[in-house]
Design brief:
Number of strands of chain B: 19
Shape of chain B: globular
Number of helices of chain B: 11
Mean pLDDT of chain B: 88
Strand content of chain B: 35-45%
Oligomer: heterodimer
Shape of chain A: globular
Strand order of the largest sheet of chain A: 4-3-7-9-12-14-17-20-22-24
Largest interface: A-B, 35 and 35 residues
Distance between the termini of chain A: 15 Å
Radius of gyration of chain B: 21 Å
Order of helices and strands of chain B: HHHHHEEEHHHEEEEEEEEEEEEEEEEHHH
Helix content of chain B: 10-25%
Low-confidence stretches of chain A: 88-94, 114-123, 129-135, 207-214, 474-478
Helix content of chain A: 25-40%
Chain lengths: 478, 446
C-alpha cells in the first residue's frame, strides 16, 4: 500500500464535530460530598438513593485508578470536572416542544428523530447531557407493560424495581470508574420487560456529550423477566472538543428464565484530532447476568471513537443452559487507544459463550483485546469459542491481544484463536486486476473483515455503523 | 519472607563475595538492591498471576554460602541415564559445578571451555565480564534479582567460532542435602559465530527434603550459530524449581528449546528469547504431565526485535488430580520487525474435575507487515476417537493412553537427539500409564 494512500486513509477528520448551543445548567466543578448531595437533591432523589451515592463516594475515595490496561492515560484531575449538567428548560411533553436546536443536532447526525419514528418505529430515549429530554413511544410500550424511561423517572415511579436490581450486577465497589459513576451518575435509561413479553420494537438511546468539561456518567439498567425478549440499541456521537472529557458509564443487564436480551452499541465519541489532542476518555463498565435457565445475552459493539476506550462488556452465566455472545469491531486511528474485550464467567451447567473480536488499527493508535473466560469448578459442560483478529493499517500502530483462560472443570471445552496481519497485498492486487481502485479495495476488505460483526447489528444500526467505519478509517478513500 | 534473606545478605555479604570471583561480584550489590526493592514475586504481579510461590518461599531453607563441598557420588543418582546416548557428561550438585573425570569428556574439541562459572571467571575473566549478567540484570524481576545477589557458581560453556559439537552436552543438576535447601546458581552459555551445540539439562533430587532451586541461565547465540536446549524435569513433589532461561539470538542463528516437565513439585519456567538479529529461526516447545498436587507454570516470552525472523511455539499440558497448570505465551513484535512470522499454540487436556488450567497467550504487535497467530484450547480427549478405537477392540484405557500419547507426541517429535527422543517417548508412556510417578531408580519418592 502506498504511503500516500495510508495518509489519506488515516488523516480523515471527525465529521460529527459540532456544538449545539443549548443553555445548560452546570454545578461548580470538582467532586466532594456536597457535590454528591447537590446532584441528588437537584434530581429530587429519595433518601436511599442518596445513601447509595454517598456509600459509593466514600468507597471511591479509598480507591486508585487502575493501571493494568495497555493504555497511556495522562493523569486525570477529578477535581477539574463538572459532575452535572442539565438542559435548563423544563422537559417538554411532546416532540414539538423539544428544543429545535436539539432536533437539528439529530438532523446533522443524518438520522432525524422524525425519520426514525416514521421509518423504523424505533422508540428513542434521548439523553442529552445527562437528563433525559424526551421519551417517545412510551405509551405504546406501556400498554404491554414495558417500562422504558429515564433512570430518574424509574427512581421516582418504580423505586422497588430500581432498588431490587441496581447494583446487583455491578456492585458499588466494583471498580474505580464504576464506583465513581455510582456516586455521581446523572441519568440514563431504565428498561423493564415483564414476563412473557416480546418487545415489539428496538429500544434505542442516543447519548451525546454536549457541554464543555462535563463528564457524563450515565447508568442503564435493563431487566428482562421470564420468557421476554428485547433488543436495545445505544449510539453515541459527540461534538468536537479540545479538552479531554471523562465518560464513565455503567450498564447492568439482568436476564431471567428463558429470556433474551440483545444489546448493541455504536460508539463514536470524539476521538481527538490528528495530533492526539482532545477526545473523550471512555471508561465503561458493562455487565450482564444470565440469571435464569436458558437465558441469553448478546453484546454487539462497534467502537470507532474516543481517545481512550476502556470497556469490557461481560456476561455472568449463572443460569443452567444459558448462553452469551460478544461481537466487537474496534477501530482506532491517529492517536486513539483502545483496550477492550469481554469477560465470560461460566458458573451454571451447560453454559456456552462465543466471542468474536475484530480490531483494526491505523495511524499511531494502539488497539488491544483483553478478555477472560473463566469456568468455575461446578460449571459442567461449559463451551467457549473465541476468535480475535487484528488488522494493521500502517507501521506505527499496534495491535495486541491479552486473552485469559482459567478453567477449573474438566468437562469444559475452551478454544481461542487469534491472528494479526496487515491487509493482504494479494487481495488488493486481485481487486486492482478487476478494475477496482486501491482505495475502494481497502474499503471493501475492511468492510468485509468487519462484516461478521456488523451482521449482528439491527438493520438501522448496521447502516450507520458501516458509514462510521468508512468515516473513521477510509476518509476520502471510501 | 524477604526479610530473612535481606538480613542474611547484609550480614553475610562478605563471605558471599569472598567465595566468588570479582566478575560475579560486580553486579551483586545492584541485584541485591533491586531485590530489596522488589521482594519476592506474588500472584498480584501480572507476570506471576499463575505462579503461587508463597508456600514454597516461606520455608526456612539453608544456603551454602561458604561453599562447603558436599560429598556425593553423582553416578549413584544418575540412574535416569538415557541409554544409547553418546554425550559429554557434567554435573552440578546443588548450586556448584561438580568436577568429575569422565572418560566420555576426553574428546571435547579444542577451544571449548566447559566448567565451573566461578573457576572460569578466575581463569578467563574477560570472557565472563563480557557476558555475565548482560541479559539477567536488565530484568525487573524479584527472583532474577535474588539470584543475582546470591548466585556464586554455576555451569559454564563456551563454544568457539565454527566449532561444532557432534555429541550433545548432558548436564545433570542434582539436589543433595540433609536439611531443606535453597540453591541459587547461574549458568552461562556462549556460542560464537557458526558454532553448534546441544545441551540436555536433567533435574534430579537425591534426598527427601524440601529443595528450592532458583536457577538463571543466560545463553548467547552468535551469528549463524545453532543451539538446542532440552530441559527434562523429573524431580520430586517437594521440589520447587524456579528456572529462568534467557536467550539472545543474533543474525541467522537458530534456536530450539524444549522444556519437558514429567514430575515435579512446584515449577516455574521463565523463558525469554530475544531475536536480536535478522533471519533468526526459533522453535520453543514444551510439555507438562502433572498430577497430584503438582503446579507448573511456563511463562514464555518471544521478542522479535529485528525483521525477517520466524518463531514457532508449542506447549502441551496433560493435567490430572488437583494439578494446576499455567501458561503465558507473550509474543512481542517490535516496531521495525517487519516480515515477522510467529505462530503460537497451547493445547491442554484436563483429566479430572479438580485439575486447573490457566492460559494466557498474548500478542503485542507494533509492526504492520507481520503474520502472527496464536491458538489455545482446553478440553478433554476426543470421545468419538475413543469410541472409534473401542469399537475396534481396543480397551478404553488403552484408547485413552493412545490418544494422550498422540497428543504429546508432536512435542516429542521436535527433539533432534534420537536416543533422547526414544527415551522420552518411553518415559512419557510410562508416566501416562501411571507407572512412573517418580523418577526411575529413585528411592526417595513416594
Amino acid at each position: 500500500m502506498s504511503e500516500e494512500l495510508l495518509d489519506q486513509v488515516t488523516q480523515a477528520d471527525y465529521k460529527y464535530g459540532f456544538v449545539t448551543d443549548i443553555e445548560t445548567d452546570i454545578i461548580p466543578i470538582g467532586l466532594s460530598e456536597e457535590v454528591v448531595r447537590l446532584i441528588s437533591s437537584k434530581k429530587n432523589e429519595p433518601e436511599w438513593m442518596l445513601e447509595f451515592r454517598l456509600k459509593a463516594y466514600r468507597h471511591w475515595l479509598t480507591m486508585e485508578m487502575p493501571e493494568w490496561a495497555h493504555l497511556k492515560i495522562p493523569a486525570i484531575d477529578y477535581q477539574s470536572i463538572a459532575y452535572y449538567a442539565a438542559p435548563r428548560k423544563n422537559a417538554p411533553q411532546s416532540l414539538d416542544e423539544v428544543d429545535p436546536e436539539l432536533l437539528k443536532t439529530f438532523d446533522k447526525l443524518g438520522i432525524s428523530m422524525e425519520e426514525q419514528k416514521m421509518l423504523s418505529g424505533v422508540a428513542v430515549d434521548v439523553v442529552m447531557d445527562s437528563v433525559s429530554v424526551k421519551t417517545t413511544f412510551k405509551e405504546s410500550l406501556a400498554e404491554l407493560g414495558i417500562i422504558f424511561c429515564s433512570f430518574s423517572e424509574a427512581v421516582e415511579n418504580h423505586p422497588e424495581l430500581v432498588q431490587k436490581y441496581m447494583g446487583s450486577v455491578v456492585p458499588y465497589a466494583d471498580n474505580f470508574f464504576a464506583t465513581l459513576n455510582c456516586a455521581v451518575f446523572s441519568d440514563g435509561s431504565f428498561v423493564y420487560i415483564p414476563k412473557g413479553v416480546r418487545c415489539p420494537m428496538e429500544l434505542s438511546t442516543y447519548f451525546r456529550i454536549n457541554a464543555i468539561n462535563t463528564g457524563q456518567f450515565e447508568r442503564t439498567l435493563i431487566v428482562a423477566d421470564d420468557d421476554s425478549y428485547v433488543s436495545y440499541l445505544e449510539g453515541c456521537t459527540a461534538p468536537m472538543r479540545d479538552e479531554n472529557q471523562l465518560h464513565a458509564a455503567i450498564v447492568e443487564i439482568i436476564v431471567m428464565n428463558n429470556a433474551e436480551v440483545k444489546y448493541s452499541t455504536v460508539q463514536n465519541w470524539y476521538p481527538g484530532d490528528k495530533n492526539g489532542v482532545g477526545g473523550i476518555y471512555n471508561f465503561v463498565t458493562k455487565r450482564g447476568i444470565c440469571k435464569g435457565v436458558n437465558s441469553k445475552l448478546s453484546w454487539t459493539q462497534v467502537e470507532t471513537g474516543s481517545a481512550v476506550t476502556w470497556k469490557y462488556p461481560s456476561c455472568i452465566l449463572l443460569g443452567d443452559n444459558s448462553s452469551a455472545e460478544f461481537y466487537s469491531v474496534a477501530v482506532t486511528n491517529h492517536h486513539q487507544q483502545a483496550d477492550t474485550g469481554t469477560k465470560m464467567l461460566h458458573i451454571g451447567k451447560n453454559t456456552s459463550s462465543h466471542i468474536l473480536s475484530k480490531g483494526i488499527s491505523a495511524g499511531q493508535s494502539q488497539n488491544s483485546y483483553r478478555g477472560l473466560v473463566r469456568v468455575n469448578p461446578k460449571a459442567e459442560n461449559a463451551r467457549n469459542y473465541s476468535q480475535c483478529d487484528s488488522l494493521l493499517l500502517g507501521d506505527k500502530c499496534g495491535a495486541h491481544t491479552f486473552p485469559y483462560m482459567e478453567v477449573n472443570n474438566d468437562t469444559a471445552i475452551i478454544e481461542h484463536e487469534a491472528t494479526t496481519s496487515k491487509i493482504n497485498e494479494d487481495q488488493i492486487f486481485y481487486c486492482n486486476q478487476r478494475g477496482i481502485s486501491t482505495e475502494d479495495a481497502v474499503g471493501l476488505i475492511v468492510n468485509g473483515y468487519a462484516k461478521e460483526v456488523l451482521n449482528q447489528l439491527p438493520m438501522e444500526f448496521a447502516v450507520e455503523a458501516q458509514k462510521l467505519l468508512q468515516i473513521t478509517l477510509e476518509g476520502s478513500v471510501g | 519472607m524477604e526479610k530473612q534473606y535481606i538480613d542474611l545478605y547484609k550480614q553475610q555479604q562478605e563471605s558471599i563475595k569472598k567465595h566468588s570471583s570479582a566478575v560475579l561480584n560486580s553486579s551483586r550489590d545492584a541485584s541485591f538492591a533491586l531485590f530489596e526493592n522488589l521482594g519476592f514475586p506474588t500472584t498480584a504481579l501480572e507476570n506471576y498471576k499463575y505462579s503461587d510461590l508463597k508456600e514454597a518461599l516461606s520455608i526456612d531453607y539453608g544456603l551454602n554460602i561458604n561453599r562447603i563441598p558436599i560429598p556425593v557420588n553423582p553416578y549413584e543418582v544418575f540412574t535416569c541415564d538415557v541409554p544409547g546416548i553418546h554425550s559429554y557428561l557434567y554435573f552440578v550438585v546443588n548450586d556448584a559445578f561438580y568436577p568429575v573425570k569422565d572418560a566420555r569428556n576426553k574428546d571435547l574439541p579444542e577451544g571449548v571451555i566447559i566448567g565451573s562459572l566461578n573457576e572460569v571467571a578466575k581463569t578467563h575473566p574477560e570472557l565472563i565480564q563480557e557476558y555475565y549478567g548482560k541479559l539477567s540484570t536488565t530484568k525487573n524481576d524479584g527472583l532474577i534479582a535474588f539470584n543475582g545477589a546470591f548466585a556464586q557458581d554455576g555451569f559454564f560453556m563456551y563454544v568457539p567460532k565454527n566449532v561444532v559439537l557432534e555429541k550433545p552436552i548432558q548436564l545433570i543438576n542434582i539436589m543433595r542435602s540433609d536439611v531443606d535447601f535453597m540453591a541459587n546458581s547461574h549458568n552461562l552459555i556462549i556460542l560464537e559465530e557458526g558454532a553448534k551445540a546441544q545441551l540436555l539439562v536433567c533435574d534430579h533430587t537425591m534426598d527427601d527434603v524440601r529443595f528450592l532451586s532458583n536457577r538463571v541461565t543466560e545463553v548467547f547465540v552468535a551469528k549463524n550459530a545453532t543451539y538446542e536446549h532440552y530441559k527434562l524435569e523429573n524431580s520430586h513433589s517437594k521440589t520447587t524449581n524456579l528456572s529462568t532461561l534467557l536467550i539472545d539470538q543474533q543474525t541467522s542463528s537458530n534456536v530450539l528449546a524444549n522444556v519437558i516437565t514429567l514430575h515435579n513439585g512446584v515449577t516455574r519456567n521463565m523463558i525469554e528469547i530475544d531475536l536480536n538479529g535478522e533471519h533468526c529461526e526459533t522453535l520453543l516447545c514444551g510439555m507438562v504431565i502433572a498430577d497430584k498436587k503438582q503446579q507448573v507454570d511456563n511463562f514464555t516470552s518471544i521478542i522479535h526485535s529485528k525483521p525477517n525472523c520466524n518463531s514457532k511455539e508449542l506447549f502441551k499440558y496433560v493435567l490430572d488430580d488437583v494439578a494446576k497448570g499455567g501458561f503465558t505465551g507473550r509474543l512481542m513484535v517490535a516496531k521495525d520487525a517487519q516480515k515477522t512470522a510467529a505462530q503460537q499454540s497451547n493445547r491442554n487436556i484436563l483429566l479430572s474435575k479438580t485439575a486447573k488450567m490457566r492460559t494466557k497467550p498474548q500478542l503485542e504487535i507494533y509492526a504492520d507487515d507481520v503474520k502472527c497467530s496464536h491458538g489455545a484450547t482446553i478440553g478433554q480427549l476426543d470421545e468419538t476417537a475413543k469410541f472409534y478405537m473401542q469399537s475396534r477392540g481396543i480397551s478404553e484405557s488403552e484408547a485413552r493412553l493412545l490418544l494422550m500419547f498422540a497428543f504429546t507426541n508432536d512435542v516429542i517429535e521436535h527433539i533432534q537427539i534420537d536416543a533422547l527422543k526414544d527415551r522420552i517417548k518411553l518415559l512419557v508412556e510410562k508416566r501416562l500409564r501411571g507407572e512412573l510417578s517418580k523418577c526411575e531408580g529413585c528411592v526417595i519418592c513416594q
